[in-house]
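Chain X:
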Amino acid sequence: MRVIVFALNGCPAGWLGAYGNDWVGTPHLDRLAAEGVVFDRHIADVPGGVGAPGAGCLSIRVRANHPDTDAPDEFYAGWGEVFDARPRPDDDSPLDELLRAFPALLDRLAAVPDFLLWIETDRLIPPWDVQQDVFEAYLDDEIEEERTEDDDEAYLDDEVEDEEAAEEELVEVVEEDETEVDEPATAAEPVPPWADPPTGLFDRADLDAWDYLQRTFAAVVTKLDAELGVLFDQLRARGLDRTAAWVVTSNYGHPLGEHGQLGLHRPWLHEELVHLPLVLRLPGAGHAGRRVPGFTQPPDVVATIRALLGAPPEGSGFDLLPVARGEAESARAFAITALELNGAAELAIRTHEWALLVPTRTPDGDPPREPRLYEKPDDRWEVNDLCARNLERADELEALLRMAREVTS
């Protein structure tokens, strides 16, 4: 079996059409999701890198990322080959070198019956390379959304009045001096994208800044989708849509101010950080269109890759192939996440009904962060903290969280 993984580091599930996003264009990933199995509740266990599955066949990890976003050295130790397709300084896009190198890499693998090709990119991690016309398309979309029917009528009335006034003014000018010509108006300067927002605290009350940030990220996601479309077409041209399994996932979602932080600043385990995409496209688009509502986590991806490659089970993950084929239910009744970052630490547990976030350490100088409880699935974006009104439920979930941590540690 051949397995090809696209690790879109920094990609939150909520930014893709397959996960309900209806305003960001991702047609190539949407097509892949339609041809594959979509796992609806894929939750990070420890947001960050994924090590080698150790599947006993040719394994290549392609680094299409900047060196400063490399995983720790131990994540690369178990790979048969580390192939660098890093961006060049003069490239128009961070994925240009991957697009150039990918055909030759696939040619090398044409006669290999079993391999694992893992492609990681930091395309969605700032500083972003933002294509200006794509960004402006999202700005134009904003203008169209804000214009009402009354605005349109007023605009037309003003336009008629302006035309009449312009005609009268033109007659006066010609009568005064037929040789006088007005200079053409200077075109408005284009609005630049917010290409390098600083990691740290973010004022969510600043709606203009938040909107500016969101539309910039939307342009980056759309451009990434178009670049992935080129790679997907190359796989299809070589028949690898029939002979290989494809996986699209992420190691963490890049926070964009939703809960007061931009980037990985504090380990606040909210939806935008921990809810990751996971799409499995089986050879020949087997079981296309299936959606899995149960919980999955990154160790399950490793276990599934090992199963696809015929390697024996290893580690704590669950093989998701029976789930993808509709032969079994997800093995996880809940998902647990833990993260330490910049002197802070937090634990979280998610069930089908609740999400509980429990801070365990706060850095000196930070205000204390209290446990937070959100009702699921109604409060998808975790904006209504119910902990104070449901202390008994919060205590039950925290006890389950700590017991599960003891079992797995």
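Chain Y:
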Amino acid sequence: MKILLDMNLSPDWVDVLASEGLYAVHWSAIGPPTATDREIMAWAKTNRHIVLTHDLDFGAILAATGADSPSVIQLRFQDIAPEKSKHIVLDVISRFRNELEAGALISVDEDRGRIRVLPL
């Protein structure tokens, strides 16, 4: 499983995810900071990465296009610092691994993760 971290998340997430055996890359390491959400989505789809973001636009793009990939995990809570929210994110990745690999949109808040299989 490969995870692409959106610009709105700290690059510190890379080490947090790697410590759990997950491959992750921050967008700033591979693309321009001015890239559009659609460009990031296209890269993730081509390179078979799951997008981890705090931006609701990625889910809107999936809905508008009817795409079946890439999978997107949307963090829908305020404190997205890895040290505060890593347990929530890691739990969602673990529980929904098969769905993420097949194509899914997961919205995560402090209490739960809501999943929709792609295409929407």
